[in-house]
Fold these 3 entries.
Entry 1:
Amino acid sequence: MTTDMLGKRVKRVEDQRLITGKGRYVDDIKLQSMAYCAILRSPYAHARIRSIDTSGAKAMPGVLDVMTGADVPYNPLPMAWPAGGSAGIQNNVNTPRALATDDVKWTGEGVAAVIAETPEQAFDAMEAIVVDWEPLPAVVDAEAAIQPGAPQLHENAPNNVVFEWSVGDKAGTDAAVDAAEVVVRQRIVNQRLIPNPMETRGDIGLYNPGTDEYTIWMSSQTPHIQRILLAIFVMGIPEHKLRCISPDVGGAFGTKIFCYADYVVVLLASKRIGGRPVKWVESRRENYQATIHGRDHITYLEIAGRRDGEITGLRVRTLANLGGRLSTIGPGIPTTLYARVLTGCYRIPNVHAEVTGVYTHTVFLDAYRGAGRPEAPYVIERAMDLFAAEIGMDPAAIRRKNFIAPDQFPYENPSGLGTASGGAKIYIDSGNYEPALNRALVMSGYLDAEAAKAEARTRGKYLGFGLSSYLEVCGVAPSKWIGAVGEGWGAAMWESANIKVHLTGKVVVTMGTQPQGQGHETTYAQVVGHELGIPIEDIVVQHSDTQGTPFGYGSYGSRTSSVGSTAAIKAAGKIRDKARRYAAHMLEASVEDIEIDGAEYRVKGSPDKKKTFQEIAFALDLAFDAPEGMEPYLDETAYYDTPNCTWPFGTHVAVVEIDEATGFTDLVKYVAVDDVGNKINPMIVDGQLHGGIVQGVGQALWEGAVYADDGQLLTGSMLDYAVPRASWLPQLELDETVTPSPVNPLGVKGVGEAGAIASTAAVANAVGDALRPIGIRHLDMPLTPQRVWKAIQAAKGAQA
Amino acid sequence: MAEHVSLVVNGIPREVDVEPRRLLVELIREDLDLTGTHIACDTSQCGACTVHVDGRAVKSCTMLAVQADGAQVTTIEGMATPEGLHPLQAAFWEHHGLQCGFCTPGMIMAAADLLARTTDPTDDEIRHAIEGNFCRCTGYQNIVTAIRAAAATVRAGVPAPSGAVQQGSAS
């Protein structure tokens, strides 16, 4: 047992149950008299519902209830993050209902639900529901959807525009582009992705008629937020009458942040059938059709600068597909979280971005790992490479020339990231970008790139190096800033921790955040153990239940280690202070004379006069001898609102070999040098980076959600959507620089998204570098063999 | 119309009546309450439901329960013994071969099948052996490291405590 565990590679306390098959995910929970739900989904992307005949289904064996949209007495789902700012408050917030009523806007939108004794009976009865559909024309592409004459989704959104929003200095940027020696323009597509957590979503609704209380077990990243959204905004029940529980969550990557229709369905269904629990578990096909997708931007970029490589302006116009109706924070992703960080780690004086949110007949889009912040470096990192190629400059040199310099921090970026009233401001507080770039170049063999390329040519391969220098904003966020900027989630962003010390000295840490595989039970225990001087074995970390945990805004945006851990440190500090006061009482000394060494509380100058943390906890629990005015028991809660976000950065280098004959791209080497500040557990940090990098590599090379023109999802299963496999990948090589974050006592920044933010651009740039010698300037992702082969053939034809 | 299935799961004889359409994974999860075996794709792509049937790794969503009549089945719950964890379980823990843990049982069962065939696999062989098992959290990096480490443990003669490797070796 060791108490020296902060910053150490501590094995995870979660793992014993997970490696032995004793994890407890939603679908593993069986409750007494549980019924099962199946949801009938639209086969059309756009159709009017003329009528729904449920009589046949109701007569099927085991069926307890059949619901349609007309049976749901609640509001539509909420949308909590309008683009705001220059877009104003939109009047066209069109969100899904628990079950669609008049029409459907994407294949897979739910229209009816069957509740039955067994899952099989529910599915059988679902087949017996007859819907009289009136199919209507559909549009799935954002650029097509805003054209005159395109099929319209919502009467209150002419031309299918959700919002038009912009940031930056338009006049200054126009002038910079007009006056520039060199301007490079490119249309780039950041394709639609399906996030693919291995556990699909699922929930169990339970209504207790005796207390008029609801309970829902949900595979969610945000049980506390879901209670607010479901109780207040959708169902209109008192907040304290709903309890939300997230058991083990089998991956999420953003998809489980949001408020989904099925939550409402299972809660209402339980009430309708007299309080029996109702379970719904999403099939993978449903997960692909009805849980959020990510990305899906079409961007026109213009990067302007001088022939010596100095970048003077960036002008960007982006169409962001938001789907058929809006998800919980859909509009916030391509606005605040994308356009305000477009300039990344570069000192670009003039930037202007226009973003248009667009409705299409596709499932809604929202935050997927990185959430806007991967899309931004994809734009700027491709732009830097295209500009470097245009002026014949080395991609590393152009990055180095334009980095924000170490002495320029705090740095206020020109896209208005820090603009806010009310005394809250966020700014890039720290960084030192060049050492990470240099280290990545050395590790990747970049300095010998030309020789490696020549050698590869002898084998019929095109070899390329791709750089991606990224800056991430995470650890969201000061609540004041969110309140003041007039855009964004209309709520606070603090976190909470409660620590209770039982009479034996064992510690229960209860958090408002919600893990999905990140190992919070380990990292919080490391932090609290360090603070209290007790071993990790004496600590249990609890979370994920609105009953019994302090309110928290949940885990996303790489915020838990920064915001949540600081709340835990504050709570531990309160515990220590009270223990010290009681130790002074026990030892008949003044509080000032008590010095703390780990779990020992000693009288200065009298080393024999001491009490252990456990002795103090025991005495304070019994409280036989508590001094006047001191409450018994060690039980403290703390809340923490961060003064600023955190700013991880780094450089990744991908090396690819492209087979000339087949167009197959082999990722032969991948180097990542990241600066995520200090680390609570380096083993867990590395794991987060590995997973993030591979998701980003997947986007560059293989993944893409494809809708047919009529709105059918062609990549409708794991047979069709290319989730990266072990055999497609090399061992990744990681290194670090460490620039501690100044905003929290641990100096941590957050690492859940960094890998995915950096890697897509690195791989795409590597393919670009490999194919540039044969005259290929840009290819859109995924860079599949077919796409690359066609481009090689076209380029050869052009050269011939 | 129920069909009767007799099988041995993790060494324990079980008798189950099932609908003809019931999948082996459903029998394992719903009838036997062994929920360590997971369902994640419905199309036999992801491998989360991998178990051993008569000593070989099988995606239990590809097999009807009635096809397992008379079979010896090992699930993740049968890998550890009172003496300790299976070397793969220990190695996944030691080398951070899991994050959310949802793919982990299937991944361990697939890896056990590999170690039954060779105790000295190359990284390429490891990656090939688990390419039918999807993981979205780890990028596979630490899974490969863990399987390599478990292979070394097995080679060093630490007895594999569970049926998985032993059954495989005998077949």
Entry 2:
Amino acid sequence: MTQTRTATPEDPAKVAAFEARIAAVESIEPNDWMPEKYRRQLVRMMSQHAHSEIVGMLPEGNWITRAPSLRRKISLIAKVQDEAGHGLYIYCGAETLGVDRAELIGQLLDGTAKYSSIFNYPTLSWADIGVIGWFVDGAAIVNQTILAKASYGPYARAMIRVCKEENFHKRQGYEIVATLANGTPAQKAMVQDAVDRWWWPSLMMFGPSDTDSPNTAELIRWKVKRKTNDELRQRFVNLTVPQAMAVNLTLPDPDMTFNAETENWEFGAIDWDEFNQVIRGNGPCNRERLEARRKAHDEGAWVREAANAYAAKQRASQASEAA
Amino acid sequence: MASTITNQELVKEHPSASTAVAEQASALPSDEWPLWEVFTQSEQGAPHEHAGSLHAVDAGQALQNARDVYARRGGVISLWVVPGGAITASTPGDSGPFFDPGADKAYRHPQFYKVPRGVRGV
């Protein structure tokens, strides 16, 4: 927080040198000079990303006690634990930009920070856990693989770490989906229902269309983002359509057609009104998610206080021994 | 594994230089747990490399948290935790002259020296 924040125009020579480094695909590191806007964009992106990892634990945690077998249960516990770790990696990266984690978490808890819209949908059946691993983690991998080449070093390095761990998430999800899809008619109906509910929200995870994304141009220019929202969304669709066919599940989009020329699966119109409603706090579970986070934070207060008191006591006894 | 930390070279001669991390540590409110930088060793004989940071009340808790966050998936045989404020780093502005390898100093390279024809192992 000691980084100076001035409203005065930035030194054009410094801006030019920075842009030249970006053009040369150099990694920008915490102590390097950077335009204030670059710093702000990164704090915004990284904190939203970290919050998403933390809030993302909630819909899945909902099913840990009801996992259908021990094998499924240990996988799910490990996955939810990973999401906590991913949140911590990214918060730590964001802190190198001169903000502190407590401040960012405060913004999440008081409702001023955003997180991924996808986690405001409910997990109604066990099949949702499979479909989340397949779609939501699949979409996150598409996104994060590219973010691992972001120009800001600490963000890129956190993404490399996350990507290494994330592949198991997608595979465990797809295994659940494939098992149910080959199961009884009731199991197959359950997983098809989950696919129907999660498909469109998963496409919205990539954010607004390029024609309507206020931040994209600048983020691409600074090589924070290396591909646009629509490019990433298309890549996800192209990967997922054959995976759905392989397990005889139908994606709920009657307009989905293969364009032999571009080799893209072209999909129907996304309901951006729904996306905007969820982003503005009016999704099915926004309030519930924040309440659960606040409850966990408040009920953990005694642990933080006890750790502080213990550390103070240790310091005092060491000081008296030394005296 | 992150290959390098920025400015991790400890340069005592540059007291004015400090990492962003160290700056934060001193600016944190007093009830915020201090920041620790975490270094992990992936195998016997390998160097410790910067992995990331975390908050903890003391060194013992920092080690435990580092194990949970950075060694949860194995691949780590040793951990260091260092108070963020204890790291002094070179400044980016130094990168030119400070690390100038003196490539123009030919006498720093073995090719500068003549060895009689036929002599081996020199």
Entry 3:
Amino acid sequence: MSASKPSSPVLPVAEAADIDAAVRLPVLVLLAFAILWLLTASALGLVAAIKLTRPDFLASCEWLTFGRVYPAALNALAYGWGVSAGLAVALWLMARLSRAVLPGGGLLVVAAVCWNVGVKLGILGILAGWSNSVPWLEMPRQVMPFLLVAYVCMAAWVVGALRAGSSPRLYVSQWWVLAALFWLPWLLTAAGAMLFFAPVRGTVQSVVAAWYAHGLLALWFAPLGLGLVYYLLPKLLGKPIRAYYLAPFGFWFYALFSAWAGAARLADGPVPAWTQAAGAIASFMLLLPVAVIAVNLFGSFLGGGLAALGRGVVLRFAAVAALFFVLSTLLYVAMALPGVAAITRLTWFAAASDYAVIYGVFSFAVFGAVYYLAPRLVGREWPFASLIRAHFWLALAGLVLAGVSLSLGGLQQGRELTNAKIPFADVTQHTLPYLQAATLAGALLLLGHLAFAVNFVKLVLCPRHRAASAAAPVPASLLAAPELELEVHAS
Amino acid sequence: MSSIPSSLGPRLESAAASDDSIQRVHAGLLGQKPEPEPGGYALAPLALLGLMSALILGCCIFFVRNRGGFDPLVYNGRIDPKSAANTSAALTPEKIIANGKAIYGLSCIQCHGPEGKGQPSLFPPLAGSDWANGSEDRVIRILLHGLKDPIKVKTVDSTLDFASSNKMPSLLAPPYGYSDAKISFVLTYVRQAFGNNAPPITAEKVTAVREEIAAHKGEFTQADLLAVP
Amino acid sequence: MNRATLIFLGAFLVLTLSWGGLLLSNEQGYGALTPYFDDNESKAYPALVPGLAARGALVYADLGCAYCHTQQVRGGELSADLARHWGDRVSYGRDYIRNPRVLLGDLRVGQDLRNFGARAPAAATLYLHLYDPAAVVPGSTMPPHPFLFEQHAISGQPSPLALKVGGVAPGTELVPTERAEALVAYLLSLKDGYDFPEESRKNTPPPPPKEKAGGKKEIAAPAAAPKPEATKK
């Protein structure tokens, strides 16, 4: 860490532009795929949500029966949108923070195409009836090795950025991104092998599935989201992370306990009691890292940071992601308490906390990052400010509406399930208003994503939109790297 | 540097810090000790340490109470398998009857019939029979070693005599080879089915009788049986 | 760059630890659980799954039934699974060892199906339920599965499985496909009737300390009663 300090505090403009130029093609290609998947996932999800309350909707189409369209939507969200967008943003972030001018982005584009073809085959497989029915691992096992290879090729590029870079330091964002990139293939290999290629027997399968499901959410989506938030906050606020010396504790404790917390998903189920208890205590221990991370992230907003929320939408996306990280982790902690688990497990409440991670934490952080990085990659500003604002508010409204309605509906469902006097059919009937609200939320999300997609397409494809608009031309230097010295806060 | 306009709004957000400065400043902060509070101590690490200790303690207690003895077959952690092991294995009366019925259907029904009525002049009835409802010692002996020679059976409404042409085989011998428990199940079933209402027979009682008559060879006769109480 | 290596090693170690601690240890602990042979009944439990039902399990997976239906009767003090008659006892790990793919399920939009075979209606009702759930349970939100049935001309004797629903053209009948028959066979095969003695012993709370009547106790109670109370069926 004792590398010689650069004499100039400001990063030379040319270098940032060079870094961005080197990753421009792969990042934009990955983002384009990701946005296509996001639209697909929101549309499929909306169909699934409608089917929950109106079972006759598209009922005669076997490919779109609920049991297929719902996992297809989740897989499109997780692997289509999640992995493509996550890798795109991770690649840019790693190149920037490592100060690496990456060569050979073309190969990465090939890997990205392979990955997306694999996901497409997998999702068609689910819709056609080759689903495994294991949550988050539904894609037919034949595409899994293919996906794994494509993923490793892409992730190796991101790690390569670290090696090729000239920066002597590692920032906290890089820890989170590096670890997440490594955890996903580990999880996928182990779970795929133990479930599909050399299947274990009995409910050991359920332990594997719970370990994977929680790992995907807590060791891939949440860390990537956190890595972005840790980067965006000082970047936009101009202030360092509060109590940064605690950040390593947050990282290691979170990793250590999240890896075990999946077993809490099996509370009261037919798996050994000690396994359930181990999952529960790992979840309780998550209070420790979440406290550290909350101090780190929210501490940055102290002293005028809140006012900055009004200025830019990137910061707002990042702030919502930070908030939902804390919230969803606290939900996992609460759901590990035996009395709470008995009510919330196997209800919409548990599902809502998973959606909160994948959408509230990860997707919001990625949205924020894309709004920051895409204009810099392309060298133009976003065409429609109104669509950006619309996206933020629609996404936030959809997230909150879905979260609140599914949590409340899930709580009621859980309370009624534990009361045998209420007939089961009534329990399901009573959740319908909440599911209708969640359907509305799905529609809001889809609208928001459309706004995002339109803006992105226009940004990338229409170089002359600025001439048409009345806005003043943007100075080239501003586009390239209007970057300042981070002020060391005193207090 | 402060001349960067923030008026561009969301269309192009301006950065407030360069990547290099973010890394440099934070690298310095990483090794930095927390600033002490007015009292001379740093609050955040202390609070964190306290939280950690409390969590570890709570989690240890929770785990010890819910670990279910690390037994992979214990699903409810709140039950200690050691103390639960003292409770007797659940052989409910329904279960005994069901087992007995299954054995009856397998080995007895061919001669004694589905209703326990036997067959006239060939196989004695069990329904209402004084033998089936009578002495435990006698019925157990019949099942253990079999029965030969004529026998007189009283039922509720008649008295029947059976010739010696058919021998009842021993249920200990092949092809049956039944355990004491199984013999007790089928006996309990027979004594409580077909309108019979005699007390059940335990596996321990069967074991006791089997040991008592170990020296006896071949089937019992009516005379042998009437000699025991 | 040294720190990056450290983070890789640490990340690897952390996940490997949980893999060993949760997955490998459970695989060692009860991954080789065998069926229990009941000497008294001369039968092994859990029973073998018949071939048609085993194929039905694949249909169950490909249609994604597990997204709305769980297959686990849960214990715990608050759980009402036993009171809802979803099973005579909680599910044990041994119940699942004959299932090639264990689908416990995460969400109870529909009822638990672990013991559905023990309480299932007649097969004809079940077919109708699959075809049009709302016709059997008014207001049901279960998706209809018309694609599991096919309409064809009656040749010779009408099929005994033909659905009795309106809207079928005269001279034709609506019969379940092979997949529907497999699925129904699977659903009817779902029952964990046998109470394994070892699991039963280890998971039945000891009677004296706390006598909070739960659903589970009611089953254990008669065992302690003297046998003369045995009644015939």
